[in-house]
Each structure stands twice: as C-alpha cells, then as structure tokens.
Amino acid sequence: MSNSLIQLLVLAGIAIFLILRLRNVLGTRDGYEPPKMETPQGNARRFEVIEGSADQIDNDIADHVEPGSPAAQALALMKRVEPDFGVGLFLSGAKGAYEMILMAFERGDLSDVRPFLGENVAEAFQSVIDQRKAQGQTVEAQFLGTRETALAGANFDPATSEAEVSVRFVGELIAATRDAAGEVVEGDPKSSRKQRDVWTFARRMGQDDPNWQLVATG
User: Fold this and answer.
1) 74-132 pLDDT per residue, tens
2) End-to-end alpha-carbon separation of the chain, Å?
3) What HEC string does the chain produce?
C-alpha cells in the first residue's frame, strides 16, 4: 500500500472521529426548532418578589381584626373601593367622634353633631333629651378620656358600596343628673364611672362626603 493511500485513510479516520465527537457535543436537530428564550436570573428574582407581594398581609387590617375573618375581608373590600381608607385612621376619628357626640348628648344639644348622626339615632337621642327637659332635669358631665377604642366588626355590600364598622368604646366620665330642685337623681358629681358602648358607623365608600354617620348604639 502506498504512502499516499495510507495518509488518506488516516485523514478519513480523523474526520469521522471529529464528526462523531461534534454530534455528541452539539446533538442533532430534526426540522426547525425555535430558539430558547431564557430568563436572566435577575428577572426571575424580580418576578418572584412581585408574585409574593400579592400574598402579603395588610397590617393596617391585621392589627385590628383576625386575618381572613369576615371583618378583615370586608375591610379589604372597602380599601379596594377607596384606597385612602385606613382602619387606624378611622378608629382615631371614631374616638374623637365618640367624645364629641357623647358630650353633646349629655349637654342636651345635638346641633353641632347632627350631621354625624343617622336618622334613627338622632331621634332616639333627642327623645331622651326632650324627656329630661320635660321633667326639669339637667346633666352635669365631664369627660375624662377614652380608655379603649377597638374594632368590633365590619360589613361591606359590594352592590351598593355601603360600609358599616362597629367600634367598642370604654369611656370614663363624671356625670350627674339633677332634678328641678337641684337634687341628684342619677350619677355622682364627685365620682367617675366607666361607660361601655358599641357604636356602628356607616358610609357609602367612594363618595365625595368623607363623613361617617352613627347609625346604631349598644
């Protein structure tokens, strides 16, 4: 066998070897394969963060009611309709309203707080005030502070956007009712007492009027 033939056989063997090696490394393709779109690691991490944020607990709600409870769900719906609504801010406003309305009732003059009273509550309060006046009674009252303000319940009607939030109050005050002769017939002008109430406030969410109305007491 000539040297040239031997060289050709050697080169052919090397070529076959290289082809087989390339097939093993690169693989083979049958027909058209679309290019693979790989997501960079940074983007994958950002997607995971965004996806996880949807499950985060709203602390403004969780600080006041059990997460997942009907009250929590109602409050979450309120926030969807009115994103600026905050449970903590609402309770702070309710605390101020409690003192203002309670003292207006004790003084026997609802004119300053009438816009914050539902019709039924306003009529009930005024009825007691009128009865006192008819009997010649007067009330001396001093508000000492609200010792507790806690959310007691919440409801929301998606069809009407009507929201109701019940708040439990514990107030402390000095109050005494005197008859026409000036004698104390109820309470003690020298001793404080605690008063426990559950008031329900209502409002249609998403409206321009930001004021809640007191619609029930208990």
Assistant:
1) 999 999 999 999 999 999 999 999 999 999 999 999 999 999 999 999 999 999 999 99
2) 115
3) CCHHHHHHHHHHHHHHHHHHHHHHHHCCCCCCCCCCCCCCHHHHHHHHHHHHHCCCCCHHHHCCCCCCCHHHHHHHHHHHHCCCCCHHHHHHHHHHHHHHHHHHHHHCCCCCCHHHECHHHHHHHHHHHHHHHHCCCEEEEEEEEEEEEEEEEEEEECCCCEEEEEEEEEEEEEEEEECCCCCEEEECCCCCEEEEEEEEEEEECCCCCCCCEEEEEC
CATH topology of domain 66-217: Nuclear Transport Factor 2; Chain: A, (3.10.450)
pTM value is 0.72
Q: Name the one residue in this structure whose structure tokens are 């309120």.
A: 78
**Alpha carbons 38 and 209: distance in angstroms, whole number:** 52
Number of CB atoms found within 10 A of residue 101's CB: 21
How crowded is residue 94: how many other Cβ atoms within 10 Å of its Cβ?
20
CA distances from 210 to 63, 82, 90, 205 (A): 23, 11, 11, 8
CA angle 129, 134, 138 (to 5 degrees): 60
Cα–chain center distance at 93 = 15
Q: What is the pLDDT of residues 123-182, one digit of tens each?
A: 999 999 999 999 999 999 999 999 999 999 999 999 999 999 999 999 999 999 999 999
